[in-house]
Structure formats: structure tokens, C-alpha cells
């Protein structure tokens, strides 16, 4: 079993009957959702809130009941992946383009559990280009403003056309040398007109399940 599958499946240990569960996006949480589908068939009663259309489709295929913000007043736990995790437990997310809904769901969750293989652990964020979701109108100008923060932004393309998010926006992948103050950068990027959200998640996850090559799972609890 690979490390993503290992931690993805392990995450269901934290999901109990009756919970409202935020369902993240990506190839690690894919395994969580598969396992949840199996458990639901066996009688587990949960309601999911998906963070992307992709996840919504997968959950529906597997028969996982879904809900929405209008119908619930809490999310008990969200399971999601990450692109980078630094030693202070800050994250870069959005490699799969779902950062906006992921951040909304994470912010509404009592618990955020991150599942990742050990390749995602870094000393300092910034190797992975930071995804920033921007409004299509005037994106070229928004990109210039973002570049003033000392990065090289690039419009994310699919088949030579802008990749459109589930929210109808574009993604700029912004390569920094290193990100020294993630919390500050998170706030400042979001003040630029045209920026909808960025992929920095500064120290908001409660727990990390890290899959290692030797088949073990490292559990890190955030004591913040
Ligand atoms: O933020 C994300 C999607 O927007 C994913 O959680 C992140 O890209 C990690 O993905 P994977 O588990 O496939 O490595």
C-alpha cells in the first residue's frame, strides 16, 4: 500500500457516526472518500460537504450522503491533503485548484485533519508555487500586483487555455524563493483587488497524518 493510501484510509478512524464531514480534494483524500463509501455501505451515518465538484462526484458515486452550509450549523471534522507542510505547521494547498472551497470548509470545521505523504514536509514553504485564485477580469493587472510580493506568477493553463476553477476563476501559480512569513503574506495577498483567495493555510490544521515510506503513519498534533 502506498503512503497516500495508508494515511488516506487511516483518517476514517477520526470519523464517527452522526458527524458532518468536510471532504477535501486530491489523490490522498481520494482514499479517505473511498473508505468512507465502504463504511457508509456498512451502516456508517455521516453527511459530507465536498470541497470541489470532483469530490462531490466521487462521493455521489460511492453513495456518501451530502449536505450544504444551508442545512447544517457545524462541520465536525474535515479531512484534506496538502502540497507543502512546514515545520511550523503552515500549509500550501491548491495544487488541485480547489483552494477556495477548501479554505471555506476548513474555516468552518471544528477539526482539520491533513493527510499527506512525507514528501510534503518541508522546512520552509515556497518550493511549491503558491496557487492564488483570481477573478478573470483584469487578471493580468492582478498578476503584476502579486509579483510585487517578490514572486514569479504564472497563469495555470489546461490545453493552452486558462484553467477555470469550480468558482469560474483563474489560478496563478506563484513561485517564491521562500515564504518567510506565511501568516502575513496570506493576509496581504488577499487585500489585492482581484485576488479571491490564496493557498496559504497558516497554522489552522489540528492534526496531521503523515505516511512514511516504511509503511508507518506519523501522527502530529498541533498544540497551538
Ligand atoms: O490542495 C489540494 C487541492 O486543491 C490538495 O489537497 C493538494 O494538492 C494535495 O493533493 P494530493 O493529495 O493529490 O497530493
Automatic annotation (TrEMBL):
Keywords: Isomerase. The keyword tRNA processing does not apply. GO terms for cellular component: cytosol. The active site is at 102 (proton acceptor). One of its GO terms (molecular function) is ribose-5-phosphate isomerase activity. Homodimer. This is Ribose-5-phosphate isomerase A. It comes from Tepidibacillus fermentans. The gene is rpiA.
Amino acid at each position: 500500500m502506498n503512503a497516500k493510501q495508508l494515511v488516506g484510509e487511516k483518517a476514517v478512524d477520526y470519523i464517527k457516526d452522526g458527524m458532518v464531514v468536510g471532504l477535501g480534494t486530491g489523490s490522498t483524500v481520494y482514499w479517505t472518500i473511498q473508505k468512507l463509501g465502504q463504511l457508509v455501505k456498512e451502516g456508517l451515518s455521516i453527511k459530507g460537504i465536498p470541497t470541489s465538484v470532483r469530490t462531490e462526484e466521487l462521493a455521489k458515486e460511492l453513495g456518501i450522503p451530502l449536505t450544504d452550509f444551508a442545512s447544517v450549523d457545524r462541520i465536525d471534522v474535515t479531512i484534506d491533503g496538502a502540497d507543502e507542510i512546514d515545520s511550523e505547521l503552515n500549509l500550501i494547498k491548491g495544487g488541485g485548484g480547489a483552494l477556495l472551497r477548501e479554505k471555506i470548509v476548513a474555516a468552518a470545521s471544528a477539526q482539520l485533519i491533513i493527510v499527506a505523504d512525507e514528501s510534503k514536509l518541508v522546512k520552509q514553504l515556497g518550493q511549491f508555487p503558491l496557487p492564488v485564485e483570481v477573478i478573470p477580469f483584469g487578471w493580468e493587472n492582478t498578476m503584476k500586483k502579486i509579483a510585487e510580493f517578490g514572486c514569479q506568477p504564472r497563469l495555470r493553463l489546461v490545453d493552452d487555455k486558462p484553467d477555470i476553477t469550480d468558482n469560474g476563476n483563474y489560478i496563478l501559480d506563484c513561485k517564491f524563493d521562500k515564504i518567510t512569513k506565511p501568516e502575513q503574506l496570506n493576509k496581504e495577498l488577499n487585500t489585492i483587488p482581484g485576488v479571491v483567495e490564496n493557498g496559504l493555510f497558516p497554522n489552522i490544521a489540528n492534526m496531521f497524518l503523515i505516511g512514511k515510506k516504511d509503511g508507518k503513519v506519523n501522527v502530529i498534533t498541533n498544540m497551538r
